[in-house]
Amino acid sequence: MSNIRLIVSDLDGTLLSESHALTEPVKAAVRQFKASGGLFTIATGRFGPTARHIVEELDIDIPFILCNGSVIADRHQVLAASTLSLQELAPFLLEAGELGVTVMLFEETGALALRRTADVDIFEDRENIACEVVHPQDREWTGRLVQKVLLIGDMPQIQALWAEHHGRFEQGYATIQSEDNYFEIIPPSQSKGTALRKLMELLQVEPSEVLSIGNQMNDLDMIEAAGVGAAVANSHPDLKARASYVCSRSYGEGVVEVMEALNLLNTVTHPEERIQ
């Protein structure tokens, strides 16, 4: 009998299909696991408005992790959040924009872009959300507090520019490459793994009772924080090397695969069953 009580899954590239949708087999597997007494939630780089429909579709009734760990929320409220001040980051962001990099800023209730680009159009279409476009030289945006910053573009160019500016910053920041062309900046000491440990404490679940699943390197400390850390077949090679279970199938099919492999779609250990 499996002792896994909590499953935490990344979304894009993991639980969702290649077209960023929930498939019927994935939804059925989540329903079956929850009906057996299991707890299911998500840990994603998305912010609240773009994750909400997935939370509702899966009927997630426990807290979930947003913005790569800087936010923990449930369906009613934000439970914990760290924010970024943009004033110190502004010169870096302005220079990135001038080089053709797409710069997006995420608040609790909406997203802003410093310019309208093809990447902004793709993001809006994929996430089904409208972004507010602000003029880079209108410095009002530098006074806002955001949950994360996203830069979309050539990764070596972005990383080189960050290295050039990083030594001038007085504040600390955490950076994440969440997709091949996504460079994210979040508050310091925040990550999916850090947020998962907080979530385990909140839910009174032991690490050995957790299965976490991902596909990118921003999922690494999350899969290492869990008793079983799984990487779907389309994962970054370095993530596969550190995972305790590597799926033979990709995206949501891989999530269902590991759930089946651990017998999580048959029965779940309830707390009273673990009392000797």
Notes on the protein architecture:
The protein is α/β, with parallel strands linked by helices and 276 residues long. It has two domains: 6-81 and 190-274, 3-Layer(aba) Sandwich (Rossmann fold); 84-186, Hypothetical Protein, Haloacid Dehalogenase-like Hydrolase, Chain: A, domain 2 (2-Layer Sandwich), CATH 3.30.1240.10. Helix content is 34%, strand content 21%. The chain is built from ten helices and 16 strands. The strands form four sheets. The protein has a six-stranded mixed sheet with strand order 9-8-7-11-13-12. Strands 2-1-14-15-16 form a five-stranded parallel sheet. It has a three-stranded antiparallel sheet with strand order 3-4-5, covered by helices on one side. Strand 14, helix 8 and strand 15 (228-231) form a beta-alpha-beta unit. The longest helix has 12 residues, at 24-35. The radius of gyration is 19 Å and the shape is elongated.
Short description:
The protein is α/β, with parallel strands linked by helices. It has two domains: 6-81 and 190-274, HAD superfamily/HAD-like (Rossmann fold), CATH 3.40.50; 84-186, 2-Layer Sandwich (Hypothetical Protein, Haloacid Dehalogenase-like Hydrolase, Chain: A, domain 2), CATH 3.30.1240.10.
Shape: elongated
Strand elements, count: 16
**Radius of gyration, rounded?**
19 Å
Which ranges are low-confidence, i.e. pLDDT below 50, for 5 or more consecutive residues?
Answer: 268-276
